[in-house]
Write a structure and sequence with these properties.
With 1504 residues, the chain is α/β, with parallel strands linked by helices. The protein has 47 helices and 24 strands.
């Protein structure tokens, strides 16, 4: 609208002879009036058409006419009428002969057309489903802002009588525009005909108003709920279609396929061209081109095509934000100019204060929109790339799977995808800081002239220092990581072999080893932290150093260059921007370089070889009995295109309903034959066809981390009668009956809650449930006990089993089932050696007869196939005794052995485990709500009260120095100027520099104190965790998954080491910085305290709301993303099964659901971060506005220096506010690790290792007499007795064997003797001393245990043989001589100092068992417990061990726990355990004569 006012013409306007302040030029009524007339129409006409095109393409639906819409249209028509009346009045006056300025006709005409266009936009938005319009919000704001300013000035001049019509029309226009602006702050009603179906809990953003969208207020409801109560899955919004996996992955997959195909075509064309010119070089050239040209490019183009629009829009927002970022220093310069000029009217000061506030707000709004869009793009790309990687996992060929370990694939999803997507935020940091630096130097040149060049010199001089610090710090970080890895390996080894550690009482020795490594680790971390403190100080103080040098050069060197407020504080504001650019650029480069490595890894993975979908001709099952169901013609197969064939010229036809057995020696190609039938191998030549659906049982059972019923059904509908039949036939029904939740029991990750046999039978049950036409069975009987295997064969695979009538190919080493096969194929070296029926092959006396003869070699004890070696047996595989236990019964263990195990629902995590309640087995605890204050106190106590107080004092001192430095600069700026120079400039400069140096020293000391205090706390907390775990009884380790414990010792320890001190340092820096700003503004303008107090309340409110919700969302996000990684790992391991069953679609859908669930948590956390940043920056900008307005009010008695000090300090607070809250939130999230490290402080502990008083007097035991007196024990208080009423006496030097069925209580007796479990009733006496009164380490050091599994720890051979350093080298060599290992050890590099790897993998099993025997010989105890120690070694090693034991332990008491009865035949006495009681006792001959339980066991073992 046109407004009355001064003419923008005449000599006064264009007279440049007199200098005029910049503020006067920019804020003249003429300028404001012109801007008010032309800016809003230009804004709408430029952006309107683009906006119309956008909403036309993104039609959401239809909105019914609402009251809001009607009100907008009425006001719009009123404005159109008003503009029309202005045009009409002007035309009427011209017609009346009254001369009118041209502007009075042009301006209303422009506004008339613009208002008509605005009305059209309002109507179109309703038709296209736009509930809130950002474009019109900005338009009405501009329509009000500029005209209102000039109208206010005009009104103040009191010129109403000259033209009352235009005055009234202006005021009416402003009223109508204000009403339109107010209405545009509201959102319209929901869509009447939405194009997309409504969601159950839609994101509130869609129905939010524009201010709510801009400031993220639509998140407030969720944040408030999170503050009131813990957030749950139901509180999270549904994921929009545009963010769903289905939409995003399909887009990226389409672009990736298109770009990769184009790249491959391009490569082939190039190769063809080169082939024509260079002939023989073509194959190599083609390979090279494919490697170089077809990996990175296609993926980069695909990602760009998917995310370019969002990225470019975000970049545009950032550029606009930076325009306003550099507007603020200019406005500050004008404001200080206004303060220094007493003649300037006050309204200009208020306007400048308002413009500073608006500029800062607009900078914040555009920056937050930039961050929001790029963070959403991160989420979308993470979803898309994860989905692409998962689909690739399902299509990988066998050679590609061998080239990529499961850990590599999990790293791709968890680390590389994350790193790549996070780098998107920093892409603009590669070029934008360079523009910042240029603009900053232009500003500095305008302010200070050539003196600004010194700033470049100082910045360049700081670079070598930071480079040197970074290099040294990297070296110490690498050293810390090496020590950390070493500690983690040792801790992992101890936890995995904790049973052996407990047997021997070695906890103290291992604690010392771990703590020695830990001390070296913390030493490296301490040095790294100090260097980090120096680096941070150099960064923080660089602004001060540059300012000091620039100001000194400007005032002391150049003539007539006095310091004033504008130069001082605008320079500081610009230098802060420069400092941010200096920090942001290298950080962005580092992030993008890291992302490039991840990108290359992802691209290489996505280009790996895939299986050929046409390798096998799969046709529907329309066959008749006797027809060929499987056919291989002249088939030659290889594991990859480059490797030699593994199967040669295979010709095989299998009729429908046939049971075909495939046998052959190890490595003959039996499993490869099944892989070829599945299409997993690369087909070199020939053809393969299969009729009908296929079910596959792999050699290594693959189990999903879900319930038993889900594993069996495998995506099919539940059929309870059929399920029951399948479980019964697969010998799983007894196991399921003993599981805590029956068929709904969780199997755990990789089936950790099941035994090997249970997993194999579950895998078989999955195939049987499928009701397929063809069954490919890869040695499913190998992991089963003899009688269980026979049951499974008869009930499932055999002629009368559930699978009768189907085509079965059975790869097997169980040769006694061959007579029941219809046809037998014998493979040797990848070729069919012979095939035919069992009788035919026997008559031929060929390869099969050779296999059968090899299976009956002497030394098998005549047991043949009836009893597998003890090392492969599993007590849980008994069809009648299936129950969840922790491990095969091969050594003393803390799990109930009674078959009434329905009350023992444990494997991995029991029901009463505090970490396992209500979650799948093997999971970990998730805390809810705010962290308790006691956790902070726990951490601070670990730091130490004196150190905490000292750190606070140092932070206070450095902040006081910072305050004094700023105040001194304001005094320097206000010094009077004489002849263009300030008299005390040198003194001011020296004191300014001294204060800055004091602040730097204080800053370094305070940060170093916090970081060193954090290291002290970390050391104490780690020692506490180590002590709590080491003092826990063995049952604790049985119930607690090792992953939970390792998590405490690795991830949580790392957070306490590094994250908590860093977050605490940040929080203290920002908190004291806020105190300084509050103090500066209050001291300078006391009136500002009226505004500061409400702002502080707002700040506290935002902080409380955000911290509560953010911590919960972070925990939920971490848990959800873990499920994505677990599912990818699980699918990678079972890819062959998934493809064989043709269930890729359901698995892809399941992965998409996991990713979407993860994004459902990530998105609210993302917008909660933006909500905090936007609102806290608004609070900070409010503080800037308050400081400026109060300065205008107090202008009369304020110097420009003080105002500059106040406003420039307030300008820094916007970033400080949000980072203080972020640091607090990060600290609260990290302090959870302290809570988790203290989790085990309250768990039950063992008896004292070495009590003050001990009943045993050394040397004890002298003879080795053991007496059980009515002994009983239970595994947990709520369970029945596992052993009860056991009373017997073992004489000194007696050799006693203990036998019994699985679960009879054999190992429990040995556990009671070592006090691994405390007696529930009765007691055990050794040489007349009750062992309950002896310290655990004293007791365990006097009993030697030789377990079946030989365990060696990482470290030297000498350390493994003499853990407590009690023996001389001569004694160790003598022991090695006895076990005939002296020559072997002497030949090793380093001899006794030879380093063993983890588990001693660089030694053979026999050598390890002999070393364990040598270790036992060195202990020289009177009591020896042998837990089938010779079962897993070859006959030669067994003879050596028997000879050594016979000579060294001839006078000792020996307890032999036997799993094989032949081991106890030379014992003087045998105890037969049954249901926790001694059923029989006597010599082996006596017990066989009684024909009782021992006799029956002997019969089952084939001994009688």
């Amino acid at each position: 609208m046109a407004e009355p006012g001064e003419n923008c013409a005449g000599p006064g306007v264009w007279n440049q002879t007199e200098p005029e302040p910049a503020a006067a030029r920019l804020l003249s009524l003429c300028f404001l009036k012109t801007a008010g007339v032309w800016v809003p129409p230009m804004y709408l006409w430029v952006l309107g058409p683009i906006y119309l095109l956008y909403i036309h393409r993104h039609d959401k639906g239809y909105i019914q006419m609402s009251r809001l819409f009607k009100a907008k249209m009425v006001l719009g028509f009123a404005l159109i009428i008003l503009c029309t009346s202005s045009v009409s009045v002007t035309l009427w006056r011209i017609q009346q002969g009254t001369p009118q300025a041209l502007e009075f006709l042009i301006h209303p005409t422009v506004w008339l057309t613009t208002m008509s266009f605005a009305g059209f936009l309002i109507h179109t938005e309703r038709k296209k489903g736009v509930q809130a319009s950002g474009l019109l919000f900005g338009y009405w704001l501009l329509c009000f802002l500029f005209p209102a300013t000039s109208a206010a000035q005009q009104a103040s001049q009191g010129d109403f009588q000259s033209d009352p019509f235009r005055h009234l029309s202006t005021y009416l226009y402003l009223s109508l525009v204000v009403a339109q602006f107010a209405l545009s702050c509201f959102a319209d009603q929901p869509l009447f005909f939405p194009k997309r179906p409504p969601q159950p809990n839609p994101c509130p953003k869609a129905g939010a108003s524009f201010p709510s969208k801009a400031m993220f207020w639509w998140v407030s409801g969720l944040v408030w709920r999170g503050y009131r109560r813990p957030l749950g899955p139901k509180d999270l919004w549904s994921l929009g279609t545009e963010n769903s996996s289905e939409e995003l992955v399909s887009q990226l997959e389409k672009e990736w396929t298109r770009n990769r195909s184009a790249a491959q075509r391009h490569t082939k064309v190039k190769a063809f061209q080169r082939k024509g010119s260079r002939g023989a070089e073509a194959p190599e050239t083609e390979t090279l081109l494919q490697q170089q040209g077809s990996t990175r490019g296609p993926l980069l183009r695909a990602l760009w095509q998917v995310g370019r629009s969002t990225f470019l829009l975000g970049t545009l927002s950032l550029v606009i934000s930076d325009v306003f970022r550099f507007t603020v220093p200019k406005l500050l310069s004008l404001f200080l100019e206004f303060i220094g000029d007493p003649k300037t009217p006050a309204w200009k000061g208020y306007l400048l204060a308002l413009l500073m506030f608006l500029s800062a707000c607009l900078q914040m709004l555009f920056e937050q929109q930039h961050m929001y869009r790029l963070k959403v793009l991160q989420l979308r790309l993470r979803t898309a790339i994860t989905g692409l990687v998962y689909r690739k996992v399902l299509a990988l060929s066998s050679s590609s799977r061998k080239a990529s370990a499961v850990g590599d694939v999990v790293n791709l999803v968890s680390v590389d995808v994350q790193r790549l997507t996070e780098s998107i935020t920093y892409l603009n940091g590669l070029w934008l800081p360079l523009i910042w630096i240029v603009v900053c130097f232009v500003y500095l040149w305008q302010l200070l002239g050539p003196s600004a060049l010194t700033a470049i010199a100082v910045f360049l001089s700081l670079l070598p220092l930071n480079f040197f610090i970074t290099k040294k710090r990297t070296h110490h970080q690498e050293e810390q990581m090496r020590q950390k890895d070493s500690r983690s390996r040792l801790t992992s080894c101890i936890l995995r072999n904790v049973r052996t550690v407990k047997y021997h009482g070695w906890e103290g020795a291992f604690l010392d080893r771990v703590l020695r490594i830990r001390a070296q680790e913390l030493g490296a971390l301490r040095t790294s932290s100090l260097l980090f403190s120096v680096s941070l100080v150099s960064f923080q103080v660089s602004t001060f150093l540059v300012a000091l040098v620039v100001f000194a050069v400007h005032t002391l060197v150049a003539e007539e260059n006095a310091m004033d407020a504008e130069k001082a504080f605008v320079t500081l504001t610009v230098l802060n921007i420069l400092n941010k650019a200096q920090a942001f650029l290298p950080f962005s480069i580092h992030s993008v370089v890291q992302a490039r490595v991840s990108f290359d890894r992802l691209a290489a993975f996505l280009c790996l070889e895939e299986i050929d979908p046409g390798a096998v001709d799969s046709r529907p099952s329309r066959w008749a009995a006797g027809e060929d169901c499987i056919s291989i013609q002249e088939g030659t197969f290889a594991w990859s295109r480059e490797s030699p064939p593994c199967l040669h010229r295979i010709n095989l036809t299998v009729p429908q309903g046939c049971l075909l057995a495939v046998v052959g020696p190890v490595g003959a190609g039996k499993s490869s034959l099944l892989s070829a039938l599945l299409g997993e191998l690369s087909k070199v030549e020939g053809s393969v066809s299969i009729k009908g659906p296929v079910a596959y049982v792999p050699q290594e059972a693959w189990v999903q981390n879900s319930s038993v019923v889900d594993n069996v059904c495998f995506g099919q509908e539940l059929d309870p009668p059929w399920l029951e039949r399948v479980l019964e036939a697969c010998a799983l029904w007894p196991d399921v009956g003993s599981f805590p939740a029956g068929v709904h029991t969780q199997t755990g990750e990789q089936g950790m809650n099941l035994s090997g046999g249970q997993k194999q039978r579950l895998s078989l049950a999955r195939a049987v449930y499928r009701k397929a036409a063809v069954y490919l069975l890869d040695d499913p009987l190998a992991a089963l006990d003899a009688h269980v295997g026979q049951h499974v064969f008869n009930q499932v695979i055999g002629p009368d089993g559930l699978l009768q009538g189907t085509t079965r190919i059975l790869v097997t080493h169980t040769l006694h089932v061959l007579p029941q096969a219809d046809w037998i194929v014998v493979l040797e070296d990848g070729v069919i050696a012979e095939m035919g029926s069992f009788q035919e092959l026997l008559h031929r006396k060929g390869a099969l007869v050779g296999l059968l003869d090899g299976a009956r070699q002497p030394g098998d004890g005549g047991q043949g196939e009836t009893e597998p070696p003890a090392g492969t047996k599993d007590p849980r595989d008994s069809a009648g005794g299936g129950r969840l236990e922790g491990a095969p019964e091969r050594s003393v263990k803390l799990v109930p052995e009674k078959d009434s195990a329905a009350s023992e629902p444990q494997a991995g995590v029991p029901l009463d485990d505090p970490e396992g309640a209500g979650r799948p087995k093997g999971g970990d605890s998730v805390q809810y709500g705010r962290v308790k204050a006691t956790m902070y106190l726990t951490y601070l106590r670990a730091v130490g009260t004196p150190l905490c107080l000292y750190a606070l004092f140092l932070f206070l001192c450095q902040q006081v120095a910072s305050f004094c430095r700023g105040y001194w600069l304001s005094l320097w700026a206000d010094d009077p100027t004489v002849d263009g120079r300030q008299t005390h400039a040198a003194l001011r400069g020296w004191v300014f520099g001294l204060l800055g140096c004091l602040q730097a020293i204080g800053l370094f000391a305070s940060m170093a104190t916090v970081l060193l205090g954090g290291i002290r706390a970390s050391s104490l907390l780690f020692q506490g965790l180590l002590w709590d775990v080491a003092r826990s009884p063995l049952g604790f380790f049985e119930r607690t998954p090792i992953g939970n414990l390792l998590n405490r010792f690795s991830k949580e320890t790392d957070i306490v080491d590094v994250d908590i001190p860093d977050k605490l340092r940040s929080l203290l820096m920002y908190a004291f910085g806020l105190l300084e700003v509050g103090l500066v503004v209050t001291v300078t303008t006391p009136l500002a305290i009226v505004a500061i107090l409400p702002l502080l309340l707002l700040y506290a409110g935002f902080q409380s709301l955000y911290v509560a919700s953010s911590c919960q969302l972070r925990r939920m996000e971490s848990a959800r993303y873990s499920s994505v990684c677990s599912h990818v790992a699980e699918t990678f391991q079972g890819g062959a099964v998934v493809r064989a069953f043709r269930v890729q679609g359901p698995f892809v859908a399941q992965n998409d659901a996991h990713v979407d669930e993860s994004q459902r948590v990530s998105f609210p956390r993302l917008v909660a971060d933006r909500w905090l940043a936007a609102n806290l920056e608004l609070v900070g900008n409010g503080l800037v506005c308050a400081a400026a307005l109060c300065a205008v009010l107090s202008k009369a008695h304020l110097s420009p220096g003080l105002v500059g000090f106040s406003v420039s300090a307030a300008l820094q607070v916007t970033q400080t506010l949000q980072w203080a809250v972020r640091s607090w939130t990060d600290l609260e999230s990290s302090i959870v690790s302290v809570e988790r490290m203290k989790d085990y402080a309250q768990t039950p502990k063992e008896a004292p290792w070495r009590p003050p008083t001990c009943a045993a007097r050394l040397p004890w035991p002298r003879w080795g007499q053991i007496e059980f007196r009515d002994f009983g024990l239970r595994y947990r208080p709520e369970l029945p007795l596992a052993v009860q009423g056991v009373s017997f006496k073992i004489h000194a030097g007696e050799k006693v064997g203990i036998v019994g069925r699985t679960g009879a209580g054999k190992s429990s007796l040995a556990g009671g003797l070592l006090r691994l479990l405390e007696a529930a009733e009765g007691e055990i006496w050794i040489d007349g001393v009750p062992i309950a009164q002896v310290g655990l380490h004293t007791l365990r050091s006097r009993i030697t245990v030789i377990p079946q599994d030989p365990i060696l720890f990482p470290g030297s051979l000498r350390m493994n043989l003499d853990m407590l350093h009690e023996h001389t080298d001569e004694a160790i060599w003598a022991a090695l001589e006895t076990v005939q290992l002296r020559a072997v050890v002497a030949s090793l590099p380093g001899q006794l100092q030879y380093e063993c790897t983890d588990q001693g993998d660089n030694l053979s099993v026999g050598q390890k068992q002999l070393l364990c025997l040598a270790r036992a010989l060195l202990r020289k105890t009177q009591i020896l417990i042998l837990d089938e120690a010779t079962a897993a070694v070859d006959p030669g090693t067994e003879r050596q061990m028997q000879a050594a034991l016979g000579s060294w332990f001839a006078q000792c008491t020996v307890l032999l726990i036997a799993h094989r009865l032949r081991s106890v035949l030379d014992c003087t006495r045998v105890l037969v355990m049954d249901e926790g009681q001694v059923a029989e006792s006597g010599s082996p001959a006596q017990l066989l004569a009684q024909k009782g339980l021992f006799y029956r066991l002997a019969q089952e073992s084939g001994l009688v």
